[in-house]
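Narrative of accomplishments. A recurring question from our advisory board has been how the design workflow behaves on a single, concrete structure rather than in aggregate. To address it, we present the structure tokens for one chain from the evaluation set, followed by the sequence designed for it. No filtering or post-editing was applied between the two.
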């Protein structure tokens, strides 16, 4: 009975267990997946994607596990992303073309295994396809300003508001336009294909029910220039021939167009038609006061005329036509060898344990081009001398050995040469079929400036496992990147620090020695037990922030200097901005900034970004803004400088062409030089044993800096490298100088051509001109140092005739007689291989100054070059030496083999030895077996983060940083030893942070220490010299282009700045005021000139703050100002008062208005009077803006109003008379009880050299600024500002305060312009009885909110009570009471 009870109990337990087996289905879809808009803005069907995580419960045996799915709607399983393992599954389902309305999906998931267990579970999900509510849709359009042509490739951006869901795509009509998503809820549009020269395109963005949004935007293919033959000059290079032979890559003919400059910002539209196609690509290279020169290429595919067209009155007109040009292109000849022969040396357990070697041989001709080899996943370009076995370039033998893994997954496997020659490689070992290695876990940490620490845990499948980032040929993580302390068994951990601006990443590849791969994309789920996903490290860490990567949330952009003079000097600057997407914490990514001017773009040709031109934001806690310090290169193109903000290298950047005028950066003066040095004269020098070239190098603006020139023998590839600087000058200077390169040959030599195969000429700003016969350069076609010699295809060739039999040619190659490799593994763990070898050539001897190359090769095209030195040499023999530093892990599981190439004799013949050739000659010296010490933990420093002269934090990137006992030693400039020891505050195996670098503007040296030392690494701080330099404008930026540059509209002469007629006064140093001084460290600081305030603080003690108030309404009947002009002679008080009853009002835009009136000046009693025009421009500023007036940068605060008052010629009765403009301001509280008022007049201390007045009532003030300069007769002249309250009987009570400011300017002839401005402030400290000169009523208390409203109204009304008068007065003589009474009467009426 007990046994039955036990059996019954077991049965019950088993039954309950079976009943508890189930499936859990979890919806892991994106939050915005359930309610969506149609696939396009005007369609009526939607697409959905739902993701599920399915888990079995109480399943023990997973053998034979499978999942199947049944769906109630037309959804399909995305099989490419489906994952299942151990009773867990990830499944993604797509539904396409689903109709409008609400619906639901029922997912039936079935699990089965080999035990016969079958479990089903249903899951229901509701979804909705809904139309966009067009009536609730708001939008904002940002249009390109087209300055310097669009750098973004976009004509405009439309930003939507009122969207409840994601708008996937926008439908459009009206032309061939490209519309694509950019920022969140934003789309860009562009006219990417030439259609016509209309200045304005119209695009209709289509929505449902016939709704649309029409947007007008400027065309990419039109300009604001009218260019024809009368105002342009075209020059063709070369100009003398119709048959042109290119003798280098991109060595095509060129054309330049020089046009009369009518704008510093807009560029002409030039198009070339070659009879087969049209293209438009010109580059500005020079610019002066009157002209701009552009350069472009002339390209055709067959003999044809080339016509150059320009835009004129919205049409294309022909300005030049070439004769029929027959251009013989320079191109890479295909590798067409004789048949390949393949030999094998398979793994023998002695020399090669884990690898096998194969050798290819053939014969061919050589023309200095690279050869591309590919095998499996890997591709590599090889240059001379690799693979050159014997012979000369006219007929040489190829002999190259390669290592591969000892087994192949299938045989044969294809090896390719130059992508067209296919060679079958066989294997004697075929690997069994196994799954590719997989990713177990991925982690990332942002370190600094787009640099991420990436960490991978992968599972080895028995054939080793590695990681490729982006592409295995770009970055491959092998054992040098292995974290062996975290690697256990078949789980291997790799880590690397990647600069994602330099190497943008979209995927990872896990691969093995057999070439099997598994690819993982950003955002992909890659594991189900546990459930893991590759989160995008391009997003902000704040997952709750819906404004990730939205650069349109950058606002309040200002520069330390908006207007820059960069004549022959680079200038440092700072950009400030706010980001409304939320404050980024320390672990968030900074915002990047890069100039997009012509000079900067030249420096970004090699990589996606150049670290020297990309700068990153820091948080300025004092002003609560982000700031970025950057450098503006000297002599870049004048006018607006385009720039770009980045939030990462993946998302759409924000270009300055879409930003308001206040956010533009402007170059006022520049000797623009966008072209590198060129050869203006070339002479060939050819004597008995010496030959070469004599060059005249021209760079008339920036000046020549240095050159790298390579000359090679056409037959034997002998190589001569020359590095020239101004130290090598034989005549002249860096702007125009002579240089010479010489080659000396012995009497025994081979006759052949010597060819200049590569030229790189750089000026002092890093702008280069390039030429090569073996590779192309970005911009190399236009930037050609041989631009003056494009007709002479032999200019880079010089034939050297040698005496002797058969022109001295020796057809027998040099012989390798001794070869000795030696491995050194010092105590610090690094590995070096030293080579010593001897070669002999008994017939002609070995050629001088030729240095063979030793190659160290591991499997998968891991090649390390070892360039030799000549240790000794005699007539027939030479001894060579070199050593190569091997990365950690190269010898861990793979052997390495050696080869030697580049032995050249004097008879024009070379020799080389593949690894297989060395194996035959030196059987025990051609390879080296794997060693366990290959994973020694040595310390290496590779690179560091940017650091400024302020010191502080420095990230150190390297390898071997495993120990917790590491320290960093620092040796500062001028020190003989390492004097500082820093302990890292953050440490990873390949990155560490120290935060105590001392401030320094000099390079310093660091090294890492544990038991041993790392390499020494020199750190170069970024040196910024931020100082305000008053600009000297040449052309003021305009908000809109002039439609017809040939019109008679006036413009500022660009040949010089606004001249100065008298010394401009500067303010005397002021005493720093306030308690604490200057408002404390968060409001300002005390300088030698007085308090300098941080925005938005203002005043002589930085205790007043600008109030943001609504823009006042526009008065269209008068300029919110009454402007009487009063005339007076020198000796009497007789005054003529002119009252303006009629104004002509002209709205300029929503923040600027203009008013015009006139009077008759002179002797009013005569008929010989003069019409004097008065123009008043009122401009409202919504945000901090830097403007320019009278050669001075002025910061306009938010909610301030600027008056620009311009008066034309006034007929003075006496040349000794001066003019005084009197401005009166009245500030009144809405209550007269318990108030205090105060007036202050003095000099500013923030560097703008102005006077200020401040009328304060309690804790609110009216602030006016009067610049001590004006533009008088087109010259900047000094003026004097005086407080006239005592003279004018101003009103001053506790609740009403009035001031009169007199602006005295000298006698003038043509015109005057003055530029005062006014703001409303709130003060940290209200006026009290204790303040000097204050007027108070009793029972003083703080203003109430109703009183504050009265002050704000009063401040707005102030615009209606500013009265300006001009009068002749004897200095300090004010006697006319009638004038004062008139003023006060009018003020009362206006207020």
């Amino acid at each position: 009975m007990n046994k039955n009870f036990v059996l019954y109990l077991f049965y019950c337990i088993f039954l309950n267990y079976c009943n508890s087996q189930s499936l859990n289905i979890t919806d892991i879809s994106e939050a915005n997946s359930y309610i969506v808009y149609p696939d396009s803005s005007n369609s009526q069907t939607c697409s959905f994607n739902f993701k599920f995580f399915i888990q079995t419960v109480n399943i023990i045996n997973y053998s034979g596990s499978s999942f199947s799915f049944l769906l109630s709607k037309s959804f399909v399983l995305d099989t490419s992303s489906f994952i299942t393992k151990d009773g867990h599954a990830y499944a993604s389902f797509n539904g396409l073309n689903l109709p409008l309305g609400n619906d639901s999906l029922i997912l039936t998931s079935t699990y089965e295994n080999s035990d016969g267990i079958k479990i089903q579970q249903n899951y229901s999900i509701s979804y909705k396809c809904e139309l966009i509510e067009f009536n609730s849709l708001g939008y904002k359009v940002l249009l390109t300003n087209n300055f310097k042509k669009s750098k973004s490739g976009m004509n405009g951006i439309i930003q939507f508001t009122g969207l409840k869901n994601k708008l996937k795509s926008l439908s459009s009509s009206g032309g061939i336009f490209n519309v694509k998503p950019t920022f969140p809820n934003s789309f860009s549009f562009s006219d990417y294909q030439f259609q016509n020269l209309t200045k304005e395109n119209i695009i209709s963005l289509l929505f449902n029910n016939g709704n649309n949004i029409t947007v007008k935007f400027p065309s990419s293919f039109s300009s604001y220039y009218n260019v024809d033959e009368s105002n342009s000059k075209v020059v063709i290079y070369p100009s003398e021939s119709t048959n042109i032979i290119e003798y280098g890559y991109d060595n095509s003919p060129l054309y330049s167009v020089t046009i009369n400059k009518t704008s510093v910002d807009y560029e002409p539209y030039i198009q070339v038609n070659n009879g087969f196609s049209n293209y438009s690509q010109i580059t500005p290279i020079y610019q002066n006061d009157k002209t701009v020169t552009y350069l472009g290429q002339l390209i055709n595919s067959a003999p044809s005329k080339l016509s150059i067209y320009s835009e004129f009155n919205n049409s294309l007109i022909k300005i030049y036509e070439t004769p029929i040009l027959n251009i013989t292109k320079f191109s890479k000849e295909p590798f067409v060898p004789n048949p390949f022969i393949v030999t094998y040396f398979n793994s023998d357990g002695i020399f090669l344990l884990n690898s096998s070697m194969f050798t290819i041989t053939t014969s061919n001709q050589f023309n200095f081009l690279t050869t591309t080899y590919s095998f499996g996943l890997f591709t590599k370009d090889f240059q001379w001398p690799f693979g050159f076995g014997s012979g000369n370039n006219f007929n040489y033998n190829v002999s190259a050995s390669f290592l591969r893994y000892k087994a192949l997954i299938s045989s044969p496997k294809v090896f390719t040469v130059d992508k067209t020659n296919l060679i079958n490689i066989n294997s004697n070992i075929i690997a069994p079929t196994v799954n590719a290695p997989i990713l177990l876990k991925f982690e990332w940490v942002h370190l600094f400036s787009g640099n991420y620490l990436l960490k991978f845990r992968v599972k080895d499948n028995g054939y080793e496992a590695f990681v490729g980032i982006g592409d295995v040929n770009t970055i491959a993580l092998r054992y040098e990147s292995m974290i062996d302390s975290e690697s256990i068994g078949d789980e291997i951990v790799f880590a690397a620090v990647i600069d994602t601006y330099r190497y943008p990443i979209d995927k990872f590849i896990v691969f093995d020695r057999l070439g099997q791969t598994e690819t993982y994309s950003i955002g992909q789920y890659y594991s189900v037990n546990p459930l893991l996903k590759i989160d995008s490290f391009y997003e902000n860490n704040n997952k709750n922030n819906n404004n990730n990567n939205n650069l349109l949330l950058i606002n309040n952009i200002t520069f330390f200097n908006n207007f820059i003079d960069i004549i022959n000097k680079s200038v440092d600057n700072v950009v400030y901005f706010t980001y409304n997407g939320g404050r980024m914490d320390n672990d968030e990514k900074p915002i990047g900034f890069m100039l997009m001017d012509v000079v900067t773009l030249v420096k970004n040709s090699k990589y996606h970004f150049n670290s020297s031109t990309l700068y990153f934001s820091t948080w300025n806690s004092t002003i609560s803004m982000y700031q970025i310090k950057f450098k503006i290169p000297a002599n870049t193109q004048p006018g607006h400088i385009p720039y770009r903000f980045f939030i990462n290298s993946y998302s759409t950047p924000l270009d300055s062409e879409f930003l308001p005028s206040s956010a533009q950066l402007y170059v006022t003066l520049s000797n623009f030089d966008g072209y590198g040095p060129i050869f203006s004269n070339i002479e060939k020098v050819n004597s008995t044993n010496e030959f070469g070239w004599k060059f005249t190098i021209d760079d008339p603006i920036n000046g020549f800096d240095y050159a790298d020139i390579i000359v090679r023998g056409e037959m034997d590839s002998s190589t001569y490298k020359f590095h020239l600087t101004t130290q090598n000058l034989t005549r002249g200077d860096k702007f125009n100088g002579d240089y010479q390169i010489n080659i000396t040959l012995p009497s025994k030599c081979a006759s052949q051509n010597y060819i200049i195969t590569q030229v790189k000429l750089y000026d002092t700003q890093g702008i280069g001109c390039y030429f090569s016969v073996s590779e192309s350069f970005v911009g190399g076609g236009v930037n050609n140092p041989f631009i003056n010699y494009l007709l002479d295809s032999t200019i880079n060739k010089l034939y050297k005739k040698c005496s002797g039999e058969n022109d001295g040619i020796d057809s027998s190659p040099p012989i390798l007689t001794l070869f000795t490799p030696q491995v050194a593994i010092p105590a610090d763990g690094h590995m070096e291989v030293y080579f010593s070898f001897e070669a002999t050539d008994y017939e002609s001897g070995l050629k001088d100054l030729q240095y063979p190359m030793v190659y160290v090769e591991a499997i998968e095209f891991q090649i390390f070059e070892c360039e030799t030195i000549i240790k000794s040499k005699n007539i027939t023999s030479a001894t060579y030496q070199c050593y190569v530093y091997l990365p950690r892990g190269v010898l861990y599981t793979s052997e390495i083999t050696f080869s030697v190439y580049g032995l050249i004799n004097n008879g024009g013949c070379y020799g080389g030895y593949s690894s297989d050739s060395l194996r035959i000659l030196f059987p025990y010296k051609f390879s080296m077996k794997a060693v366990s010490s290959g994973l020694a933990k040595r310390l290496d420093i590779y690179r560091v983060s940017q650091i400024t002269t302020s010191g502080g934090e420095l990230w150190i990137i390297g390898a071997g940083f495993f120990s917790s006992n590491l320290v960093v030693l620092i040796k500062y400039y001028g020190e003989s030893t390492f004097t500082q020891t820093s302990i890292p505050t953050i440490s990873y195996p390949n990155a560490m942070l120290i935060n105590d670098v001392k401030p320094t503007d000099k390079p310093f040296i660091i090294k890492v220490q544990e038991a041993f030392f790392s390499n020494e690494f020199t750190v170069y701080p970024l040196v910024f010299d931020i100082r305000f330099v008053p600009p000297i404008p040449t052309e003021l930026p305009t908000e809109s282009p002039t439609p017809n540059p040939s019109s008679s509209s006036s413009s500022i002469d660009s040949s010089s700045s606004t001249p100065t007629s008298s010394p401009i006064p500067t303010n005397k140093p002021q005493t720093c005021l306030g308690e604490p001084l200057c408002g404390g460290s968060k409001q300002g600081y005390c300088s030698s000139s007085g308090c300098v305030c941080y925005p938005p603080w203002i005043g002589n003690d930085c205790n007043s703050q600008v109030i943001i108030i609504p823009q006042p309404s526009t008065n269209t009947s008068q300029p919110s100002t009454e402007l009487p002009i009063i005339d007076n002679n020198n000796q009497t008080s007789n005054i003529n008062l002119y009252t303006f009853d009629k104004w002509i009002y002209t709205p300029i835009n929503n923040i600027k208005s203009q008013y015009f009136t006139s009077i008759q000046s002179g002797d009013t009693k005569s008929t010989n009077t003069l019409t004097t025009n008065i123009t008043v421009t009122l401009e409202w500023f919504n945000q901090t803006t830097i403007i320019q007036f009278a050669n001075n940068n002025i910061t306009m605060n938010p909610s301030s109003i600027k008056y620009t008052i311009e008066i034309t010629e006034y007929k003075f009765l006496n040349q000794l008379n001066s003019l005084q403009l009197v401005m009166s301001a009245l500030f009144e509280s809405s209550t007269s009880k318990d108030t205090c008022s105060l007036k202050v007049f003095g000099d500013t201390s923030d560097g703008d050299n102005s006077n200020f007045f401040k009328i304060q009532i309690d804790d609110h003030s009216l602030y006016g600024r009067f610049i001590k300069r004006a533009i008088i007769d087109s010259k900047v002249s000094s003026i004097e500002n005086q407080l006239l309250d005592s003279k004018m009987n101003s009103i001053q009570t506790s609740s009403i305060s009035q001031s009169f400011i007199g602006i005295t300017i000298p006698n003038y002839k043509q015109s005057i312009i003055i530029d005062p401005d006014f703001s409303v402030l709130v003060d940290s400290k209200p006026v009290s009885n204790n303040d000097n000169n204050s007027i108070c009523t009793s029972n003083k208390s703080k203003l109430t909110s109703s009183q504050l409203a009265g002050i704000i109204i009063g401040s707005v009304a102030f615009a209606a009570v500013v009265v300006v008068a001009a009068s002749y007065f004897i200095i300090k003589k004010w006697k006319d009471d009638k004038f004062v009474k008139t003023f006060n009467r009018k003020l009362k009426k206006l207020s």
